[in-house]
Amino acid sequence: MKRILIILTGIMLFSCNDDFLDQVPDDRLTFDETFESRNTVERYLASIYDQIPSELDQRYTASNSGPWIGASDNAEYVWSFHLGNYFNVGDWDPTTGHVSSLWSNFYRAIRASTTFMNNIDQCTDCSEDITNQYIAEARVLRAYFYYNLLRLYGPVILMGENPIPPDAGNEALDLERNSITDVVNYIVSELDKGADELDGIPFTGPNAGRMSRPFALAIKEKTLLFAASPLFNGNPTLAELQNSEGQPLAPQSYDVNKWQSAANAAKAFIDEFVPGTYKLYKEYNADGTYNAYLSCRNVMINDWNQEMIYARPRGGIAYHYDCTPYHLGYPTEVRGAGGLSMTQEMVDAYFMANGRSIDDPDSGYQTEGFSDFQAPFDFEQRSTYNQWINREPRFYVGVTYNRSLWLNRNFGNIITTTWYAGNSGRQAGTNDYPPTGYIVRKNVPIGDWRNSNRTVPMMRLGEIYLDYAEALNEYDPGNADILKYLNLIRERAGIPEYGSESLAAPGSQEAMRDAIRKERRVELAFESVRYFDARRWKTAEDDFSGPFHGLDINARNEEDFYNVVVFENRVFEEKHYLWPIPQDEINSNSKLIQNPGW
Q1: Cα 556 → chain centroid
Q2: Engineering a disulfide at 293: which of 76, 393, 442, 541 sits with its beta carbon 3.0 to 4.6 angstroms away?
Q3: Judging by beta carbons within 10 Å of its beta carbon (0-12, 13-18, 19+), is residue 207 exposed, middle or buried?
Q4: Is the previous residue joined to 25 through a cis bond, with omega within 30 degrees of 0?
């Protein structure tokens, strides 16, 4: 526990696009000096903001991000050093570095938040309004860091409100894990309080990227959704997790009312903020007709748009490089690595243009051959593999496939070819190529991939809608709002709605659950959601295990490239639903018990 009790007196900052979040210190300060003036108080608070995960830095799992995309069934990184590749074959344990660093970093941030809240009153030139606002921001940040710990490690340690002095004896460091119920209740209570304190404070302009009432209430809903889900709601495999008095740390009885709490929190968010503050992002053509492709593409890359609840200011260059194809022979602006590759399983998860899954007999899906087809990102027809024609708009937002037109046309019309001898294939890139023959395209800017002057999307309204539909279906199946909010997502995606003339509505709770989960996978693909969804549903042993497929990137002729082959056999065991507590923390705290199976 030593590392989680360190006070952050050294200020570490990140560069952002507003005055507050762009400050850089010129020296190191004593503890008293840190809280003496507004300038240094703001620098300290900015250092806490720096611990928010940067979800477009997952190649090296830096900046408190994790291997969420590459460790899910959606994708595969080509580089062996990526942490997700270790996860995918089960080669990780309590001594794995990132397991320890995330635990420690989030607890440092929690510790720093508490220290900040308890010492800002020393500021001599902070007004009462500023003091109250900054305390509220620190409160929400602290709760958010606990939420991140909860969804990884399960029941964790609540540190309390009073900082433990740095010179405290070892007995002060021996803290037990709190129960899931206690952790959830604490997070929700703190978010409610922070949301109330931030009510009326604008979160746009100079405040963009700071904690806000909407973000606090969105994370509250996400916390309650986790608490309601099978992983934490009556999961017998966590029965052995008990405190020193033999009390279970994870609820052993299923409680449907937890789904109601999550649904109520989502609906409260919608009622308060839609449509006055947020609405689903949509774009229209010059003639006034709706453009589903641009709507689904640009919701992720247009900064501070009407759907974005929270974004981290500035970042993403690593992700841009990972998703920009190699493009041998072209300038750096359009030449990346193409090393973040989409699995065939994810490619097959996208619907057809008629809104049906490809395994639906009425979908019109073709398994062989080629057709002249104009993709929505293209200006003309091109010979396209039939499996990729007439798919829904989100498919073309998400996938760079062989013979597709690249987004950046500043150097002409570049056709990306991903087969072995293609300009972005294995022969050209050597170490930089798509291991499945597909490259992730979603959330990549249209211009130079080196542009880091953009926001990193963290939370948007579409996710709240799908959360609401899911939670409502679990406690009140048949409620009209389930279909309403599911269909709002499909309408924006430009595909037929369930219950329309061309597509029947799911006829049971189980069928609706399946429809919602399919929609979540497609709508929220590559937004660091799928990894957590499959874990909280307890479906990851099926979803993340077994043979995973891609195209034959080693075929020496393009015809054979289209054969689907196994690129990896993946492992996900029961113990992987919760990350292990870092072994060095277990060694230093006699009261800290390990998660089952580790």
Answers
A1: 37
A2: 393
A3: middle
A4: no
Amino acid identity at 91: D
What residue has token string 């051959």? Answer: 369
Half-sphere exposure of 294 (CA within 13 A, CB side): 9
Give the β-pairing of 308-312 and 415-416.
unpaired
> How far apart (Å, rounded) are the C-alpha atoms in residues 246 and 240?
9
Summarize pLDDT for 299-318 with one digit per residue, the tens: 999 999 999 999 998 877 89
The percentage of the chain sitting over the pLDDT mark of 70, rounded to a whole number, equals: 93
Which residue is associated with the tokens 């037929």? 496
Residue at 322: amino acid letter: D
**Using one digit for the tens of pLDDT, what is the confidence trace for 147-174?**
999 999 999 999 999 766 544 544 446 8
What pTM value is reported for the model? 0.94
DSSP string, 328-388: TTS-GGG-----EEE-HHHHHHSPBTTS--TTSTTS----S-EEEE--TT-SS-EEEEGGG
For the chain, residues with pLDDT lower than 50 are 1-27, 166-167, 169-172
Q: Cα dist. 231→254, 320, 461, 470, 577 in Å?
A: 10, 33, 24, 15, 8
